[in-house]
Amino acid sequence: MEIVEGFGIGVVVILAALFILFVRRALVTRSGGIIRLSVRVSTMLDGRGWSPGFGRFADDELRWYRMFSFAIRPKRVLSRKGLAVERRRLPEGQERLSMPADWVILRCTSHHAPVEIAMARSTVTGFLSWLEAAPPGAVSPRLASQDWPAA
């Protein structure tokens, strides 16, 4: 009987964790402005270190939340003021296994450090439009397009 109780408690804990993940996502995404987005959190191994999540546009920030996290706060915040796209490329090697085929990787620089983000090709245009749509008087970010593959 103890085995059945232990198994039952384990199932309840797993279901509760899944429920909390869904509620968290609903709370974060309820106001719209959400895109699927992966961020490279580690560069230790080539093609590895990508973490799936979603980005939320809020004012002059892109707030990135990990997909499988219990945190309500964003894991990373990218400010439009200090963000510039250095280059754009298609997934290579191991990256093709960890993200959908139609995704594009953008290497960006920010005030803090370089960051690589990956998103669907159809989302890139909207992201670049948001990036260029700086408020009046602000300096427009630099977009290097010389090495961009054809969309």
Structure description:
It is a single chain. This protein has 151 residues and is an alpha+beta fold. The chain folds into 2 domains: 1-30; 32-132, PH-domain like, CATH 2.30.29.30. The protein has helices spanning 2-29, 95-98, 121-132, and strands at 34-40, 50-58, 61-66, 76-79, 84-89, 103-109, 115-120. It has a 7-stranded antiparallel beta sheet with strand order 4-3-2-1-7-6-5, covered by helices on one side. Strand 2 (50-58) and strand 3 (61-66) form a beta hairpin. The protein is globular, with a radius of gyration of 18 Å.
Question: Descriptors for this entry?
Answer:
151 residues, alpha+beta, PH-domain like, 2 domains, seven-stranded antiparallel beta sheet, 3 helices, 7 strands, 30% strand
Please state roughly what percent of the residues sit in beta strands, choosing from under 5%, 5-15%, 15-25%, 25-35%, 35-45% or over 45%.
Answer: 25-35%
**Helix content bin:** 25-40%
Architecture of the largest domain in CATH?
A: Roll
Q: What is the rounded Rg?
A: 18 Å
CATH topology of the largest domain: PH-domain like
**Low-confidence sequence ranges:** none
- Total helical segments: 3
Strand-pairing-aware structural class: alpha+beta
Give the class-level CATH name of the largest domain: Mainly Beta
Question: Can you give the mean pLDDT?
Answer: 81
Q: What order do the strands of the largest sheet run in, or round the barrel if closed?
A: 4-3-2-1-7-6-5
Strand-and-helix sequence, N→C? HEEEEEHEEH
Distance between the termini: 61 Å
Q: Shape from CA axes?
A: globular
Structural domains: how many: 2
Quaternary state reads single chain
* Biggest pleated sheet: 7 strands, antiparallel
CATH superfamily of the largest domain: Pleckstrin-homology domain (PH domain)/Phosphotyrosine-binding domain (PTB)
Q: Give the tally of β-strands.
A: 7
